[in-house]
Amino acid sequence: MKKLNIEQREENKEKGGDVQVYRHRSNSFGEKHKFKFSNLQAFKVPRGWDKLLVSIVSVETGKTIAKSSKTVVHGGTCQWTDSISESIWVSQGVTSKELEECLYKIVVSMGSSRSGLLGDVVLNLSDYVHSRDSALLSLPLERVASSSTNLAGTGYPDVPVNRDRSFSASDSHHSSDSDLPAAEETIDELRDEVKMWGRHSQNLNLDLEILKENSLKSKHQANHDVELFAAFSKRDSFKQELEQLKLSLEESMTKQTVNGSAKIEEIIRLKEELGDELKFLRESNANLSLQLKKTQESNIELIAILQELEETVEKQGMEITNLSEQAQANDSVSRSNGRLLLDLEAEWASKLSMKEEIKKLEEKLSVVLQTQVLKY
């Protein structure tokens, strides 16, 4: 009967750098989980077992899927420093969705022949798929000849979890009846090992492809995130510009309304001023027309006066001429008429002064007419 002792513990990040598990999907019902077994140890190994190795064998197919390196036994204890990692398919019920049994044997042997088998332990890996913490297992090895031998180890399934497993088994004798069967068994084991490494290589290639796909997806996602961030930034900038345009439009409309009202008031004021100025100009024109009419009438009167004065001057000139002729003819009479001549000369001088005054009046009248013409 197997003895199981599970100790839960937190994951050791320093030793668990390669403990991550990759889950693989397929078209069938189930999942592929990556298990990692490390810190394997065998205790109470009997004498005669110099070097041992650990193999992972499928109970269903009987094929060896993974092996460890051979390790020397010291003082009845054999400890493997390397770890075993393998992706193992765990089936799932179609209707019940429960995990089916996934039986694998942990085989401890010399690795050269069937007679070199120290013992094995059968594990149902489905029991450890959903575990989140490492577990220390101590199980006795079956197919033993005498005393019990313990094997300890650690495994990691599906998620970044450590599973420490230990197993126990007793010794058996390593013997060979003949070299030929041993050679055939060695060849079979080597073939199984080649197949196992081939499957391991396929699994690694599959993991590599999945990692590449995930890397590409991550890059695409990063690019999409950058584009999305840029789009959000543009959207925010457009929103800000739109808000600024709205504010500018509102301010412009407000200014136009205020300016429009001010312009209307200014136009009304200018219209009133123009009306007043037009009224003043009309009144001024009427006054100027009246003054012009009066001035024209005055000019007509002055012209008549001037004509009369000219006629008077001409008459006086004729009279003076006649008087001069009479004075020459009556030279003898001039002495007697000296006073009359003096009177005539005085009268002539007054007439000359009157003529000069008429000229001055004509000049003043001309100046007045020119001034009035310039005003109009």
Automatic annotation (TrEMBL):
Q: Which residue ranges have biased composition labelled Basic and acidic residues?
A: 161-177
Keywords of this protein's UniProt record, alphabetized? Coiled coil
Q: Where is the C2 NT-type domain?
A: 23-159
Report the coiled-coil segments.
235-326
- One Pfam family this chain carries? NT-C2
Provide the residue span(s) of the region labelled Disordered: 152-183
InterPro entries named among the record's database cross-references: NT-C2
User: What is the designated name of this protein?
Assistant: C2 NT-type domain-containing protein
Give the originating organism: Dioscorea zingiberensis
